[in-house]
């Protein structure tokens, strides 16, 4: 894809893996500006014991030993409660380091008022917030942490025959498997030009959904002209982390239509072997440079960007296993980003905004992926106390014209409140499905009824605000379309995933009374009905995106929804499944594994036509003849919703 051909848009909601709801303004600068609205640390309560007990303001004039109240009553002006609280805090601080930095490379500042010096800086602090290229990691296959960008490009774009050792030979014949133009990668000037194209693709397509980098800073620090190693002087002069550069380039290769990659795909059945090689080399480079082991802000970002970059099929060896997502969470916990008291001490709004966004991306992705892939969530509700963004609806406009308005901040807050509420539901279900007792005995009836209630309440409270609006305009742009459809599908696929869980495990009825048996069947029918309507909804949304060619540019946002809805509709023998099949086929442009998913769903559909609805187990009693009946019709966007978040089972949606 040439630089002028990429889709550009700075508006519309953003989403990230897997199905993460992000705000409508996805520009990184706005993310950082919003971080400035975090509440400051609470002022220490210095009231004396008498005023504290009376719950009144303790007013002590300068130079006086007692406050005005104690002077008038002739009370001893003691501060025993304050002293005890301070001692408790000091003890806690001794047990757990609470230092933070305003910069990742210079002038670290402690939680107190005195700067950290070389004598009192703890080792964990240097590892977490010091320069990444401080010499801790020596080299990897000829690359060191101080290697220049041209040297890194020489390694990343080396001929494929040297993948196993990452030691590179310059032989044109080795490039043949990457297409007719790949031999041009031997030229340093061409490598630099090609890398710049991939960087632009990343920022125009991926960055709109995963705003973890500052585009201006990244471009400035890419330093393709560097010819020798140089010492780090300041943060703005620090070279980019080699694994971060590799990750951005690998993302760009997924979606770029550069002539070299077009020739590569033409030669290899529509798939780019160069793009696959870059993913493998990026992963190996990150592992070698201990990205997954050393808590560092760069390592957080690299980990969270690598996870959705990879194959998303957990059944494959190179598929989604949550390793990099887990690594990112461990790094965040190592930096204590889950503590509000630590977050508010990050004075640099750029660093604070990045870490806030990274935390919520990791937190929500952990919850959703655990439910989808039947894993135990790494995080729980009480593992963090940080807020996202706070804004005063009545606040005056800021003097900075580039800062978001209070209305925009509240809009951000609304999207994250919706996402977090749905993530907590998903996290609760995931923990239940993980338990061995569930595998043995089934899902408790009370839990099923609770899930049904929680999802219904979420729909009433949030779907109309974050889903596809009923009054869409004809010029719906790329980011707005993909983002709104993804947030809408995020909710609906939860019903489908719950249906499959109930079908696999069944419902445990401890009472086993006529009343409880009736409740079990009622719950099955309710979930069946919701899952059917949800699948039809997702199929319609997928049809919109596919007809516009948007899913070939989507970084793993809608694939889970398309696969689950497609499997459900295929087993019922409903023709709406072809919307999901076509969507997954288009997805295979960047994620090869989705083509196999499309084939599997097509086979399920053919089997259902021949034998009737198949592969249902515990939920078979809820499959009624009406669920298999359909009336194919075309419905517009306006007909998709009725304005209150409810949905219709349509087969097609156009814009």
From TrEMBL:
PROSITE patterns: ZN2_CY6_FUNGAL_1, ZN2_CY6_FUNGAL_2. Residues 100-117 have a biased composition (Low complexity). The keyword rRNA-binding does not apply. GO terms for biological process: DNA-templated transcription; nitrogen catabolite activation of transcription from RNA polymerase II promoter. GO terms for molecular function: DNA binding; DNA-binding transcription factor activity, RNA polymerase II-specific; zinc ion binding. Residues 1-20, 88-118 are annotated as: Disordered. Pfam families: Fungal_trans (PF04082), Zn_clus (PF00172). Residues 47-79 form the Zn(2)-C6 fungal-type domain. Keywords: Metal-binding, Nucleus. GO terms for cellular component: nucleus. Residues 1-11 have a biased composition (Basic and acidic residues). PANTHER family: GLUCOSE TRANSPORT TRANSCRIPTION REGULATOR RGT1-RELATED-RELATED, TRANSCRIPTIONAL ACTIVATOR PROTEIN DAL81. This is Zn(2)-C6 fungal-type domain-containing protein. It comes from Suillus discolor.
């Amino acid at each position: 894809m040439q630089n002028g051909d990429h889709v550009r848009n700075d508006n519309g909601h953003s989403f990230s893996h897997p199905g993460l709801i992000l705000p409508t303004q996805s520009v990184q600068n706005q993310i950082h500006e919003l971080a400035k609205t975090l509440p400051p640390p609470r002022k220490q309560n210095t009231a004396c014991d008498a005023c504290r007990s009376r719950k009144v303001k303790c007013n002590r004039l300068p130079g006086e030993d007692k406050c005005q109240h104690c002077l008038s009553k002739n009370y001893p002006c003691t501060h025993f409660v304050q002293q005890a609280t301070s001692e408790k805090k000091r003890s806690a601080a001794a047990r757990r380091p609470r230092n933070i930095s305003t910069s990742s490379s210079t002038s670290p500042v402690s939680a107190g008022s005195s700067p950290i010096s070389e004598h009192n800086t703890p080792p964990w602090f240097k590892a977490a917030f010091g320069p990444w290229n401080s010499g801790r990691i020596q080299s990897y296959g000829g690359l060191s942490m101080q290697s220049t960008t041209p040297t890194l490009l020489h390694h990343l774009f080396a001929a494929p025959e040297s993948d196993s050792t990452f030691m590179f030979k310059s032989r044109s014949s080795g490039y043949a498997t990457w297409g007719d133009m790949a031999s041009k990668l031997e030229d340093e000037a061409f490598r630099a030009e090609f890398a710049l194209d991939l960087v632009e693709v990343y920022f125009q397509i991926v960055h709109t959904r995963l705003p973890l980098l500052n585009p201006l800073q990244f471009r400035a620090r890419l330093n393709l002209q560097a010819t020798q190693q140089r010492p780090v002087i300041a943060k703005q002069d620090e070279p980019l982390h080699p694994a971060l550069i590799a990750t951005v380039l690998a993302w760009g290769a997924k979606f770029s239509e550069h002539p070299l990659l077009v020739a590569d795909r033409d030669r290899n059945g529509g798939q780019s072997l160069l793009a696959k090689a870059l993913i493998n080399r990026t992963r190996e480079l990150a592992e070698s440079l201990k990205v997954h082991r050393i808590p560092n802000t760069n390592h957080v970002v690299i980990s969270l960007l690598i996870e959705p970059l990879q194959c998303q099929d957990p059944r494959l060896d190179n598929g989604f296993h949550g390793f990099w997502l887990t690594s990112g969470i461990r790094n965040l916990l190592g930096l204590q980003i889950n503590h509000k008291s630590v977050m508010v001490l990050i004075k640099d709004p750029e660093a604070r905004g990045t870490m806030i966004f990274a935390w919520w991306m990791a937190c929500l992705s952990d919850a959703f992926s655990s439910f989808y892939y039947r894993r135990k969530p790494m995080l729980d509700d009480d593992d963090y106390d940080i807020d996202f963004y706070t804004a005063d609806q009545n606040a005056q406009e800021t003097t900075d014209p580039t800062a978001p308005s209070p209305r925009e901040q509240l809009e951000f807050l609304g999207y994250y409140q919706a996402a977090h509420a749905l993530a907590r539901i998903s996290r609760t279900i995931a923990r239940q499905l993980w338990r061995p007792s569930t595998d043995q005995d089934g899902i408790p009836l009370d839990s099923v009824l609770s899930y049904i209630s929680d999802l219904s309440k979420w729909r009433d409270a949030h779907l109309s605000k974050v889903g596809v609006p009923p009054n869409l305009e004809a010029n719906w742009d790329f980011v707005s379309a993909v983002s709104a459809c993804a947030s809408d599908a995020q909710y609906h696929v939860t019903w489908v995933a719950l249906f499959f869980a109930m079908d696999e495990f069944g419902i445990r009825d401890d009472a086993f009374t006529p009343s409880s048996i009736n409740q079990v069947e009622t719950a099955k029918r309710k979930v069946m009905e919701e899952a059917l309507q949800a699948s039809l909804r997702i199929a319609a949304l997928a049809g919109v995106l596919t007809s516009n060619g948007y899913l070939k540019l989507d970084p793993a946002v809608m694939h889970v929804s398309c696969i689950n809805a497609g499997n459900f509709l295929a087993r019922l023998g409903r023709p709406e499944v072809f919307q999901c099949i076509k969507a997954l086929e288009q997805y295979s442009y960047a994620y090869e594994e989705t083509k196999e998913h499309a084939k599997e769903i097509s086979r399920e559909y053919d089997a259902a036509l021949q034998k009737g609805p198949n592969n249902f187990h515990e939920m078979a009693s809820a499959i009624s003849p009406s669920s298999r009946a359909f009336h194919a019709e075309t419905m517009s966007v306006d007909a998709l919703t009725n304005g209150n978040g409810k949905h219709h089972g349509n087969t097609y949606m156009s814009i």
